[in-house]
Amino acid sequence: MKTLYLDCGMGAAGDMLAAALLELLPNQDGFLAELNGLGIPGITVTREASVKCGIQGTHITVKVNGKEESEEMHADAHGHGHSHGQEHEHTHGQEHFCDGAHAHHHSGMHDIEHIIGKLPVSAKVKSDILSVYSLIAEAESHAHGVPVAEIHFHEVGTMDAVADVTATCMLMERLSPEQVVVSPVHVGSGHVKCAHGILPVPAPATAYILRDIPIYGGGIKSELCTPTGAALLKHFATKFGDMPVMRTAAIGYGMGKKDFSAANCVRALLGETEDSGDTVAELCCNLDDMTAEAIGFAQEQLFAAGALDVYTIPAQMKKSRPGILLSVLCREADKERMLRLVFQHTTTLGVRERISRRYTLARTTESIPTELGKVSAKISTGYGVTREKYEYEDVARIARERGLSFADVITRIRRSEKPHG
User: Fold this and answer.
1) Phi, psi angles (nearest 5°) of residue 112
2) What sections of 220-291 are H helices per DSSP?
3) Which of 23, 166, 318, 410 is 20 to 30 A from 102, comparing alpha carbons?
4) Quick one: 314 exposed, middle or buried, by C-beta within 10 A (0-12, 13-18, 19+)?
5) What are phi and psi of 124, to 5 degrees?
C-alpha cells in the first residue's frame, strides 16, 4: 500500500508540510510554476535550500505583492509574533486587532470560499482546502467565543496561508497516498504573545484542533505547531502513531525558519508498506420502518464522517415484511464514531460487526491535457492491472460549459487524450 509517513517531532506548520511534500516530487520547479500560475492574489512562492543541525532540506518562502511578511510586521500590527516556520495565518473574532497606524483589510470564510472557487484546481483540491479552513475557523470560533461567520483572517496572512494550504492539498493529490500515518505531534511549550495577551502553548485554537490526536510538549520553549499545520494534519491523516514497516522510496525535509537544538523540520517518507492489505470493520443492521429519504440521509451522514462505503441491500424481514440491510465499511479507528451515527440516524436496536481484510489497487491522480482542456484522471494499478477513470466533476463541468452530454465529453476526451506517464 502506498503510504506517506509524516514525522512531526518538531511540530508542523503549513509551509513546512508543503516543503516536505515538495521534496518528494521529481519536478519541483514545475510544481512551483503551476502553483504560482494559479492566480492566488499577489502571491509568489519560491524554494531554497536550508540546513538545520546538519540536515539539508527545503524552505518555502511566500511573498505577498513582492514582500515577505515578517514576524516584526505582524507583531507591530497585531501583537502576535510567530516563532515557528514561515506561516502567518491570523484568525480573529469580531475584533480585528488593528491599530490606527496599521489599517489592514480582513477576510472571512465567505472571502476564502470566493478565492478558492476561482482557482483552476480540481474539485477535490478545492474541497480539501475548504475543509482545512473550516477546521481553523471552527477552532478560532471556539477559542474566541464568536460565531464562525464572524471569524476574520488578516489579509496578508490570509494569502500566505492560502498558498501554504493550497500547495499542501495539491501535493497530497499529486502524491495520492493510500494512507497517511502521522507521528505524535510535538507542540512545544512555554507561552506565545498575541493581541489577547500571553497565551499558553499550544495556543487555544491549535489545542482545539488537536483534540483526540496524540500530542506532547518538551523542553523547547516555542510554538511548534500552528493552527494551519494542525488542521492539515487532522484533515489528511488516516491514523496517528509510530512509523509502519515500509519500503521507503522518497524522503523530504520541510524546514522552518528558526534554529533550535533539534532540527527544525517536518520529515515526509513515501513508500510501500509491507502488507498491501488493511483491516476494515463492516457494520450491518436490518431496517424495516424507515423511509427511503431517511435512509438516504443516514448514508450521507456516514459518508461525511469518513465511511469507506455505505450501501443497502433488499432484505426479507420477520412476518414477511420487506426491509433493508444497511452495511457500513469503515476503518477500525472510526468504528465507534460510525456506531454512534448508525444509532443516531436509523431506527435499529442493534448492529452486527464483522472484521475483514481489504486489498486495494494503488491510486494516483494525474492532470491530462485534452482538446477540451485539462482533466483529472484517477489511475489505479496493482495485481497486474491498470485502470483509468476521469474525475466526474471535471467531466460534468465541461459538459455544462459546452452544452454536451456526459457521454460525449468522455468520448472526446478519450479521442484527444495525449500520452501521460
Assistant:
1) -60, -45
2) 227-236
3) 166
4) exposed
5) -65, -45
Residues 6+ apart with CB under 8 A from 75: 81, 193
The answer, yes or no, to whether residue 92 has pLDDT greater than 60, is no
Cα Dmax for the chain? 77
**DSSP for 104-152, written as a single string:** --EE-HHHHHHHHHHS-S-HHHHHHHHHHHHHHHHHHHHHHTS-GGG-E
Q: What contacts 16, CB < 8 A, 6 or more positions away?
A: 85, 87, 229, 254, 255, 256, 265, 266
Helix ranges, 176-248 (H): 204-209, 227-236
Which grid coordinates are listed for 280? Answer: 476494515
One-letter amino acid for residue 403 of the chain: G
For 323, the grid coordinates are 426491509
8 A C-beta contact, residue 225 and residue 111: no
Against a cut of 0.70, is the pTM above it? no
Cβ neighbours around 421 below 10 Å, total: 4
Q: Do 230 and 211 meet the contact criterion of CB atoms below 8 Å apart?
A: no
pLDDT of residue 230: 96
Cell of 405: 452530454
Looking at residue 188, the DSSP 8-state letter turns out to be B
Residue 417 to residue 179: CA distance in whole angstroms: 29
Question: Three cell numbers at 168?
Answer: 499542501
Question: What's CA 49's distance to the chain center, in Å?
Answer: 25
Q: How far apart are CA 321 and CA 310, in angstroms?
A: 23
> Is there a contact between 20 and 182 (Cβ–Cβ < 8 Å)?
no
Residue 71 burial (C-beta neighbours within 10 Å; 0-12, 13-18, 19+)? middle
* pLDDT at residue 96 is higher than 50: no
Nearest Cα neighbor of 82 from 179, 201, 247 is 201
Residues counted in the chain = 421
Considering only 149-163, 289-303, 322-336, which range has the smallest mean pLDDT?
149-163
